[in-house]
Amino acid sequence: MTLRPPHGPVRDPAGTPARNGSADPARLPDLALRSYGGSVLAASDESFAERQALIRPGRPAFQPGTFGPRGQVYDGWETRRRRDPGHDWAIVRLGMPGVIRGVVVDTAWFTGNYPPHAWVEACEMAGHPSVAELTAAAWTEIVPKSPLTGDSEHFFAVPGGRRYTHVRLNIHPDGGVARLRVHGEVVPDRALWADMPVDLAALENGALVTACSDEFYSSPLNVIAPGLPRHQAEGWETARRRDGGHDWLVVRLAAPGVIRLAELDTANLVYNAPGAAALHGADARGGGTPGEDAEWFDLLSRTALQPDTRHRFRLTGERVVTHVRLAIHPDGGMGRLRLYGTPAPPG
Questions:
Q1: pTM for this one?
Q2: Do β-strands 88-106 and 153-157 pair in parallel, antiparallel, or remain unpaired?
Q3: Phi, psi at residue 232, to the nearest 5°?
Q4: Which family, according to the similarity comment (predicted)?
Q5: Predicted confidence (pLDDT) per residue in 100-135, tens digit
Q6: Are 30 and 178 found together in one domain?
Q7: Which of 54, 64, 91, 272 has the most CB atoms around it within 10 Å of its CB?
Q8: DSSP string covering 273-297
């Protein structure tokens, strides 16, 4: 276990530092995030603070001396004081099933009421299981019982490569946890894609931003997140460039495929939208990750963009791509990038 301070610079929707790549598990998307479809299906108790707060986006907030019917208001999940030998728990359905690489148990603002210990279990169940079915499921311990401290982020690396759909946070004996983050690699049920077009750039389908030139204001992962951005912070925005260059990001597609329709959405970007954008593709089915010196070919030539607009472009190429490079000129941001196409046959 490692402890990380609860405050930092730029953060992704989950509230963790906005970084790229998969070498550090904490850089991977939060599979349990509420805005990605996660839900806290059940909890043993939520007398002081509601269970759904565990998976809210953003950093936990706190205002001392703010009292409601349940006592001091906490932005997190808090149970009553136990007077028996048991422990408290919460079952979370992952919004995006996948391979879990790291878990964060964040006790931000809980100082005299945090749980002394926690452990995490996971399971995989097809379909839409009920709480009763989940309670009876075979759970695998992915984080052993570990000590916690107050007002701290506790990061636990998770070994192995199994796919999971649900996790269960256990705390002993009781107390409050502000946030639970479940970082990992999305592994969707690809049988649902059979014989139909799909958004090959969607995070929930298994795509991932593997590199970008700048992430000063917000995470590039936002650009392939589910749903529409409600404001600028839910898109990708770079610093102002002063060097004559341009900004870019690289998306590893959910599967190799032929892209038929590209959607570049500058939603909420009114005075900071890019002046133009281009799309380039690469075919790395032979292995590796294409870099700046890769054989990139044009998918969409440099095209002027409008502020706060959803732009759609039909693409006519027939080449299979595994990675797409979005170039924005010279800087600015993008609310969402959608790349609709047909997955290539296996092999």
A1: 0.87
A2: antiparallel
A3: -60, -35
A4: Belongs to the allantoicase family.
A5: 999 999 999 999 999 999 999 999 999 999 999 999
A6: yes
A7: 54
A8: --SEEEEEEE--TTSS---TTS--E
